[in-house]
Amino acid sequence: MQTAPHPLTRDLVLIGGGHTHALVLRKWAMSPMAGVRVTVINPGPTAPYSGMLPGMVAGHYARGDLDIDLVRLARAAGARVIIGRATGIDRTSRRITVTGHAPVFYDIASIDVGITSDLPTLPGFTEHAVPAKPLGTFADRWAAFLDSCGDAPRVGVIGAGVAGCELAMACAHRLRAMGRDARVTLFEAGATPLPGIGAGARRALLARLEALGVELRTNARITAVDAGGVQLTEGRVDLDFTLGAAGTRPQEWLTDTGLALENGFVRVLSDLRTETDPRLYAVGDCAHMTHDPRPKAGVFAVRQAPILFHNLRADLAGQGGARKPYHPQKDYLKLISTGGKHAVADKLSLRLEGDWLWRWKDRIDRTFMDQFRDLPVMGAPDMPGGELAEGLRDLLTVGEMPCGGCAAKPGADVLATGIANGACALRPDVVLGGGDDAAILRAGDGLQVLSVDHLRAFWDDPYVMARIAAIHALGDVWAMGAAPQAVLSNIILPRMRDRMQGEVLREITAGAASVFDAVGAVVIGGHTSVGPELSVGFTVTGTLAGDARGHSVDQARVGDRLILTKPIGSGTIMAAEMRAAAPGAVVVEALRRMGQEGGEAARILSPVAHAMTDVTGYGVIGHLRTIVGGSGVGARIDVARVPLMAGARDLTAGGVRSSLFPQNLRLSDGIDGFDPDRPEHALLIDPQTAGGLLATVPADKVAVTLRALINAGYDAADIGEMTGVGITLT
Asked: Can you tell me whether residue 152 is helix, strand or coil?
């Protein structure tokens, strides 16, 4: 979570992570605007670069070479990322609907959602073919096909425009390089392939298609697609992989926005604002430039970026009269790859081709992508001037940024010092408490669990933060074997104008409700205040049936197996994210793990577990110590069996540590075999937010219990056993 140095007064939302928006974010990182909160909404953590797709298909680039990491880019720009697909815009309330998320408010928004080459009106296409756009989906399906194709794969490409020809040659080259006896067929419904390019380039490309053995079928009208190929008016062609590259279609949800459209594409004026609504811009392939129509091409999207950046800032500053017009160039050079490291240039009617043109194209593409890899990193605040109090320099060490989530809690020594003598004498109706994670209270004929948790935000999406904070707060209730009952919220909102604060609170409320409603808990009230940054907390009660005492940490027995229900590593991953050092896909997967509720795991474990706790700020070892100390037993951890979040080990091996790590390191004192330099060991003291349950289970019941947990969707593991004395790592 990035603390804004100034109050926020305007919301700028970028819908889609297309090339124009990616470049705007990069420019924003170089020159942010005080008072503006920037949000980018995208279905995934990355946005693929279309210029390198044929090269990836041909095998010249790895899949990751195509991806612009929007999470890292947004971090550099001080923007928040919302992972979800935009599905509509309510222009009256100024809210964007997003799948799996609360609607997102905007003052100014820009649309850059690209296009699709899906052919929904062609029977069977959606079920059995793969459109070339969106690029990410196609790239994944192509990679899967390569892993499974036989010795004589049959590939069909629908549409013999530039994109279709380029992809057909790339497919043929890749399969030939793999030693496959491939057959690639290129289907064109019209009489002439490659319409709209110069005669010289057309001759060169047709010659390359022939040299690669690509069969070109013109006047080929496909009537249906099925799992085994395509049906044409004059016959059938059997295929193993069918690719659609015929034409371009806009996103269907744009039709319901009420914006003026041209064949489904958003009509924009010369300043890139929509013809209908001055608060909305549209750029890239999804836009139709009414003042100077142009074909869909990435070169226009790239050159729109400086104009969009300028005009958005003018509007956000209340200086709309300073907007600039965008004037697309009349002509541009097309460099078309031909499968191998060879390219054809489309310029006038000349026939220009050669390996040198591919090298030129490769240099252009790599230069474009390099600007998204070398990003500024947000460091710790500068040292104050003048004399410094002793110890201040250590707490403000350059490069050390305080983490959020459960990693923002004080160390175990601080709590031990602060509350060792501070717990008041227990009342007769307090069954369990006095410094425990949660209290058990006698309420009439039953028992009630009471717990509280509060998180400093580590992710700039209030909806997601509220979901994770709710799951985190429920952890103690689930660990005690209780059923969630009632909730009080405690929210600190950052400094914003009133409308923005209201919208943030709406997102928090919706995120929390999506968790608490699902587990039967009722939010009955709470308290909200304003502070320097967002934090979200909840006080939760739960009920225990009859005279059940619930689970605690003092009943583990020698011989019990130790079960962990979630992978670990969230503290390290989110620490890396703050430094723009974590891959976006790794961050989003960690958020998904933190957002997995633990109620079903608790229901599976409660009937069999002797002791149970949730793994939070003090890591696996810290919370295992509470079981070992409370039960008077020891433990052995089989380190290789501890599940880790994707990417956590590599980040730890690279030296990334949560800001709570030095304090947690003290918890490893006396543990036999612990080596803080080994990544797997270091992760055992990594602070977890909304971590899994750690339970001791009788050895004869561990197999069936693990199977039930895995069937319920948890990546649970048997990570060791309870022993006679001490904690040992093996």
From this structure: coil
Which percentage of the chain shows pLDDT scores above 90? 74
274-303 burial by CB neighbour count: b if 16+ within 10 A, else e? bbbbebbbbbbbbbbbeeeeeebebebbbb
- Establish how many alpha carbons lie within 13 A of residue 127's alpha carbon, considering only the half-sphere containing its beta carbon: 10
CA atoms within 13 A on the CB side of 22: 28
Of 647, 690, 578, the closest CA to residue 72 belongs to 578
The answer to whether position 384 is within a domain reads: no
* Structural domain includes residue 320: yes
pLDDT of 602 > 70? The answer is: yes
* Helix, strand, coil percentages in the chain from 3-state DSSP, rounded to 5: 35, 25, 40
**For residue 230, which of 130, 115, 339, 116 has the smallest C-alpha distance?**
130
Cα gap 13→219, rounded to integer Å: 45
**What value does the CA radius of gyration of the chain take, rounded to a whole number of Å?**
29
Which of these three, 489, 519, 550, is where a domain ends? 550
Distance between CA atoms of 323 and 319, rounded to whole angstroms? 8
How far from the centroid of its chain's Cα atoms is residue 726's Cα? 40
Region 642-670 average pLDDT: 94
pLDDT digits (tens, 9 = 90+) for 569-600: 999 999 999 888 899 999 999 999 999 999 99
Closest among 720, 703, 521, 547 to 640, alpha carbons compared:
720
Average pLDDT of span 14-41: 95
The total of structural domains in the chain comes to: 4
pLDDT at 266: 96
Q: What is the DSSP string of 346-412?
A: ESTT--EEEHHHHHHHHHHHHHHHHTTTS-----PPPPPSS---TTHHHHT-TT-----BGGGSPPH
Average pLDDT, stretch 304-327? 94
Q: Is the pLDDT of residue 422 over 60?
A: no
Whether residue 475 has pLDDT greater than 80: yes
How does pLDDT run across 401-418, given as a tens digit for each residue?
666 666 556 655 655 555
Return the H-helix or E-strand segment holding 574: helix 570-578
Structural domain boundaries, residue 564: 552-730
Q: Is-catalytic flag, 406?
A: yes
Q: Is the pLDDT score of 662 beyond 80?
A: yes
Catalytic residue among 171, 286, 406, 424: 406
Closest CA relative to residue 694, chosen from 648, 633, 650, 637: 637
Contact criterion met (CB below 8 Å) for 129 and 222: no
